[in-house]
Fold these 3 entries.
Entry 1:
Amino acid sequence: MAVKLYIEAIHDAILEEMRRDERVFVLGEDVGVRGGVFRVTAGLIEEFGEQRVIDTPLAESAIVGVGIGAALHGMVPIAEIQFADFILPAMNQIISEAAKMRYRSRNDWGVPMVIRAPYGGGVHGALYHSQSVEALFHHVPGLKIVAPSTPYDVKGLLKAAIRDPDPVLFFEHKRCYRLIKGDVPEEEYVLPIGKADVKREGTDITVITYGLMVHLCMDAAEQLAKEGIDVHILDLRTVLPLDREGIIDAVKKTGKVLIVHEDNKTGGVGAEVSAIIAEEALFELDAPIARLCGPDVPAMPYSPPMEKFYMLNSEKIAAAMRKLAEF
């Protein structure tokens, strides 16, 4: 088994799927000769040529619109949005067209398309290069939203997304790209979309999270283990659809739940997770559901002290875990 960076696992998934299926192609700003702003698509144009690795104008609505049209004609596009912040001009294409196509065509047409977008802060990217936008799409039936945390998960889930018959938004936390590494099998594998994963078994409190926050929660859990507090951690991996069974099982493990995500607290994915627990597992709880999220401010600050104030870290998470454990 090879040890890969998170970004290498993404590259490998795209490469293998393009070799497997000649209908798969990549489009986006600078994805060709440049290999992408983060170099995810480096080398693909040399192997597959400019007909399957297409540099586009700086026009996200057009990138997604062209992808939708190609998907309707039998192709399998992987559209790259350089930063998730830039996906907003394409929201109409995603919500009004891609998400609704199967329903409006009475199951005659689907949009087998992946839209990849690096998201999240902590990289001094300030307001236009740091946003978490998953909740903006979380309300939309017809979409799937994936946000993996490890190289193993990101490769298996990206392959699943590319093979999915309907549109998938694939959010990659940009801090994970070259910070997180892990084991990735040499052999072929695909992971199911919509299935959460237990990243740490524990008996005292349950933490439900996704993306980069998984790693911060794991660090915090190790701190609390030294204090005799055993933390159970569930990585959602997919935020739409949510793994309701996995969430309820995790709640039953300890009866105390902390939900952690980087996105703003109000109306975030954590609110829906809380609602599921309240509806289906209320009497399993031994404490009120707790949420630790990004603050409800309009944008990520550029100032390093203010960015540090905005971002969660293992110390903030450990404090929230400790408070819940003591309830």
Note: The mean pLDDT is 97.
Entry 2:
Amino acid sequence: MRTVFFGTPDIAVPSLQAIEALHEVTAVVCQPDRPQGRSSKLVPPPVKVAAEKLGIPVHQPEKLNDGTFEAWLKAQAPEVCMIAAYGRLLKQPLLDIPTHGWLNMHPSLLPKYRGPSPIQSAILNGDTVTGVSIMRLVLEMDAGDLLLQERVEIGENETAVELAQRLGILGAELMFKGLRLIEEGNAVFTPQDPAGVVECKMFEKNDGQIRWGASAREIHNLVRAAQPWPIAHCELGGEVYRIHETRLTDGTAASAPGTVEEVLKDRLVVSTGEGRIAITQIQGPGKRVMNTGDFLRGHKLDAGATFTDLH
């Protein structure tokens, strides 16, 4: 089928590659290149990089609703448009263009976690199961009728980055199946259950702050969910430290939350509001991310030192 693909980050790349293999992708639409790093060098989004390798024309509109983009999309004459983590809302005139509508890949078990952070929210909330939904794109965010849905388990130590990679591959398989169902005239869409709607919000920098009075599991979930941004963080000695990896550990906390109870060869065992947690990757102020064992070889840190909430 003739299609235009909309997507921006890494999680959308497998879907583009899967669809392009057997269908005519006339163009890819993604967000503009953005400045990154201290040099503010413009960096293209992953979907743009992938599209150029596939030889597909790329369009990166700054404005979607001034009529120019609408005319451009009509000229592509898409039978169906595919969208995965594009990152911008589309208005009805654009939704009306493709003959067979839009298919949207969302990395959650809709209607749970409608919104911009379904993967991070699932991990942060301690969910053990999530999934991918393929739905029809409608004006209301993530509210379209469902075509396909598949569940996966979340690993106890799996980060948002790792889970996004898995869901991206699963999403590609389901997007491909969905497109085939439409092509064969066998697509059956099911309305979402309004009673099950849970909305999630965009992660902000302060969402990465560790509250040491929380339980060890809650802090472990935060560390996993806050990747690749904003990274879980707290203070030690008045400076900000970032915690990149933790493990749940046995034992009852015998000190105030945030206190380093044990300094082991490869980890720091820290008390929390409920239980103890082991820090296995850490980043000091202005330093690179290090395994805790490497960190301890260059930094003296004794039992009794205390991590604190950000002030």
Note: The CA atoms of residues 265 and 309 lie 25 Å apart.
Entry 3:
Amino acid sequence: MTTKTETAMAQGTRSVGALYVILRYGIYLAFLILCASMAIISPRFLTWQNISNVLLQSSTIGVIAVGMTFIIVAQGIDVSVGAIVALSSAISVALMLFHGLNQYLGLLVMIAGGLIAGFVNGFSVAYLRMPAFIVTLATMQAFRGFTMVVSQGRSWYNLPPVFQAIGFGMIGPVPVTIVVAIVAFIVGHVILSRTVFGQQVYAVGGNPEAARISGINVRRTVLKVYLLGGLFTAVAGILVTSRLNSFWPTMGTGFEFDAIASVVIGGTSLSGGVGFISGTAIGVLLMGVINNALNLLNVSAFYQQVAKGAIIFVAVLVDTLKVMYSKHR
């Protein structure tokens, strides 16, 4: 009887272990299967022009997702990133077009705008102990409102040459936008996996109280995480403004959901303490390939929204199953 029980327990452990491996690495398998399927279905899929389009369209969300990875690993969330893109772009472009600000100083203003927004979010979460989702939901509304105040609801065109150089420039055969995104992923990976600060982010996200007892300044770490998120979001704002070569009051709408979905699909846990920049990169690419595949297959924009919602639902479900497995193993 004892032998049978032990055998059953061992089989159960192997089954749960296999399930965890599928949940942990299934994203890579899904990405390969999707790419192989689309290569068979559509001859246009593997052309350099199409691949370049996927990478360009994924670059902006990718840069935001790098910062979002830090925030979610630290048990936070930021739904204001799309509004930060719009507000920082509005202030910077308005100063350059109507007040004669130097175009390079204008880019610094956009970076400063992202950092200030990140500070507001981070200070509210870390020092005022406000829930991250509520704080960033409130600032999202406020930043959108300020964007309308600054722009008076108007769009602006004919931006200074620096935006065209970034949005349409090339470094060899590779667009500048893609190069910036690759650099952002490398920098994010090094900071999160190779520095003391990165280890502190994991510790705070895994168990804030244990991190505090071990000597980590939890509040300061959380504030730094949101500052980093604001910085990456501002860089993404420069990229999207440059790609459009114009400013739109509604720009950045929906960026928060794409970024969060990419991070979670890439294996970062919404419960905190777990996450990898490399996983986020695959999550961003998977989202980009799915959008591209739906366009190549001429799927209605309405059904594309349904598909995107279903993908986010599955990603959260997988994350929940992984958390349940971790608690019971």
Note: The chain has a mean pLDDT of 90.
